[in-house]
Design goal:
This protein is α/β, with parallel strands linked by helices. It has two domains: about 200 residues, Spore Coat Polysaccharide Biosynthesis Protein SpsA, Chain A (Alpha-Beta Complex); about 230 residues, Spore Coat Polysaccharide Biosynthesis Protein SpsA, Chain A (Alpha-Beta Complex), CATH 3.90.550. The protein has a nine-stranded mixed β-sheet with strand order 10-11-9-8-12-15-14-16-13, sandwiched between helices. A seven-stranded mixed β-sheet has the order 3-2-1-4-6-5-7, sandwiched between helices. The termini are far apart.
C-alpha cells in the first residue's frame, strides 16, 4: 500500500500579511486574529484526522520560511514543519508535493488553513478517493479549491502564475483531466475571505464561543508567569486567562490586567476562587485548570467541542502524570477507568462546560474540598459527560510528597466521607490537617 502524507499549508499570523482582503474591513490586527483562529481550527481538525488515520504522516508547510521557528514555538504542533518555497502559490504547492513524493510518499493531499467548515471526514475521504483515482479536489465557494490530492505527481497543473482568481478550481480540474488524471471532488466548502463570509462564523460552534480559563491558585504571581505564558500559547485570539489567587484579605476582586491575563483575588478556597474567576471572565465556555497541569497543544480546540452537541453538559480530559512511573501510570489508569465507568472525573482532569450549565447548577457550591465532585454530579443532571481523547498532564508532587499509596487511600477516604455527608469544613480540616485549620480561620 502507498505511504500517505497530508500537507497543511499555513502562513505565520502577522498583521498585514494574512487575510489582506478582509483587513480593509476589519483592520489588519482583527484580520490577523481571524486567520489565527481559522488556522488553529484547521490544526484541531487535523488532530482529529490523525486519531482516525494514524498511518498517514502529517507535515505543516509554513510561509514565510524565516518564521518557521516562531511558528513552532507559537503553535507547538507535534508534526514536522517544512518551509514553503517559491515565488507564487502554485510554485509553493508544486515544491511541497515534489518534496513529499521524493520522500517516498505515494498519495499526498494538501489542505489550506482558512476553511471554517473543514471536517476530518473531508481529509479521510480525500485519501479514500486516491485509492481508486489519480486526483481529488475540494472546491471552495469563491472559485478556488481548499484541498488537492495527487497520486502520482502532476507538477504541470501548478505552472500558472495567477492563483487569486475565481476560475482556479475550474482551471485546475480541466488541466488534470486534459493530462489524463481521473479526478473526483470533495464537498463544497467556504474559505473566509470576504466581509459577507463573516456571518458564517457566528453560527459555528468553534468560532462563536470564546473560552475563559479559570485558574485557582495560592502561588505567587511571579512564580506562575512562565506557566501562564505557556498556557496562552495554546489559546485562540479572544480567549482569556483568569488567575484567581486565594487570600485571607483579597484586594483585586475587580481584577487587574497584565499582558492579557486577568489577575483576581478572592477568599481562600478553591470553590470560592473559581466562582470569583467566572464572575470576572467573559467567555461562553469555562475551563477550570489547576496551576500544575500541562494542556495538549490542541486543548483549546477540544474544549470548544462542548458547544457542538448540547447533549453534553460537562467535559474533561484524560489524566496523565508528568513526570511519571509505573505506579503513577496505574493511578492515572484507574482515574481514567473511574471516569468512564462512573462518569466522575476530578478537577485535575481540566473540567469545562458552557456558561449556562455553570449558572444552572449554581457554580461550585463546596468552598474548600470536593468542589469538583459536587460540581460534576450537579452538571450530570443537565446532560452527559464528554471525555475528550487528549490527556492533561499534571504534576505528581502531591502523591510523591505523601507517598503514592497513602495519598491514594487518603483521596478515596475523603471521597467516601463526602458521599456520607461529612461537612465540607470537616473534610478540609482532615485533609489538610493543621494547615487546613489555619487557612479556614484566615478565610472566615
Amino acid at each position: 500500500m502507498d505511504r500517505k502524507a497530508l500537507i497543511v499549508f499555513a502562513r505565520y499570523p502577522e498583521p498585514g500579511k494574512v487575510k489582506t482582503r478582509l483587513a480593509s474591513h476589519l483592520g489588519a490586527s482583527a484580520a490577523c486574529d481571524l486567520y489565527e483562529m481559522l488556522l488553529r481550527y484547521t490544526l484541531g481538525v487535523v488532530h482529529d484526522f490523525s486519531r482516525f488515520c494514524p498511518e498517514t504522516a502529517v507535515f505543516v508547510a509554513v510561509s514565510p520560511e524565516e518564521r518557521l521557528d516562531a511558528f513552532r514555538r507559537r503553535f507547538g504542533v507535534p508534526w514536522p514543519l517544512i518551509a514553503q518555497k517559491g515565488d507564487h502559490l502554485g510554485r509553493r504547492m508544486a515544491e511541497a508535493f515534489d518534496d513529499l513524493f521524493h520522500r517516498g510518499y505515494g498519495a499526498v493531499v494538501l489542505v489550506g488553513s482558512d476553511i471554517f467548515d473543514l471536517s476530518p471526514n473531508d481529509l479521510r475521504n480525500a485519501f479514500r478517493i486516491l485509492e481508486s483515482r489519480n486526483a481529488v479536489l475540494g472546491p471552495a465557494r469563491d472559485g478556488g479549491f481548499y484541498a488537492i490530492g495527487l497520486h502520482p505527481p502532476c507538477p504541470r497543473i501548478f505552472d500558472a502564475p495567477s492563483w487569486g482568481t475565481a476560475d482556479v478550481f475550474h482551471r485546475t480540474r480541466t488541466s488534470l483531466e486534459r493530462l489524463g488524471f481521473s479526478c473526483a471532488l470533495l464537498p463544497l466548502r467556504t474559505d473566509i475571505d470576504r466581509p459577507e463570509d463573516l456571518s458564517f462564523l457566528d453560527r459555528h460552534w468553534a468560532f462563536s464561543n470564546s473560552v475563559s480559563v479559570v485558574v485557582p491558585t495560592t502561588a505567587p504571581r511571579a512564580a506562575l508567569r512562565p506557566w501562564v505564558e505557556t498556557l496562552q500559547r495554546i489559546l485562540w485570539p479572544q480567549d482569556t486567562v483568569c488567575v484567581v489567587h486565594g487570600s485571607p484579605s483579597p484586594r483585586l476582586s475587580e481584577g487587574e490586567r497584565e499582558n492579557g491575563v486577568l489577575w483576581v483575588e478572592s477568599a481562600l478556597g478553591r470553590g470560592l476562587q473559581m466562582n470569583a474567576g467566572v464572575r470576572a471572565s467573559p467567555g461562553r465556555i469555562l475551563w477550570f485548570l489547576h496551576d500544575d497541569c500541562l494542556p495538549h497543544c490542541a486543548a483549546a480546540y477540544r474544549v470548544r467541542t462542548i458547544a457542538r452537541d448540547e447533549r453534553f453538559a460537562l467535559g474533561c480530559f484524560r489524566l496523565a502524570f508528568l513526570p511519571t512511573n509505573r505506579a503513577l501510570n496505574a493511578i492515572a489508569a484507574w482515574a481514567n477507568l473511574r471516569t468512564r465507568l462512573f462518569r466522575l472525573p476530578y478537577g485535575d482532569q481540566g473540567l469545562f462546560c458552557r456558561r449556562p450549565i455553570f449558572d444552572a447548577v449554581g457554580g461550585f457550591r463546596r468552598p474548600y474540598l470536593m468542589e469538583d465532585v459536587d460540581f460534576v454530579r450537579s452538571c450530570r443532571r443537565f446532560g452527559r459527560l464528554l471525555v475528550v481523547p487528549e490527556v492533561l498532564s499534571t504534576s505528581p508532587r502531591r502523591y510523591l510528597a505523601k507517598g503514592l499509596l497513602r495519598a491514594s487511600l487518603h483521596n478515596h477516604a475523603t471521597l467516601f466521607a463526602h458521599f456520607l455527608g461529612v461537612s465540607n469544613a470537616v473534610l478540609y480540616r482532615r485533609y489538610y490537617g493543621a494547615a487546613g485549620q489555619r487557612r479556614e480561620r484566615q478565610s472566615s
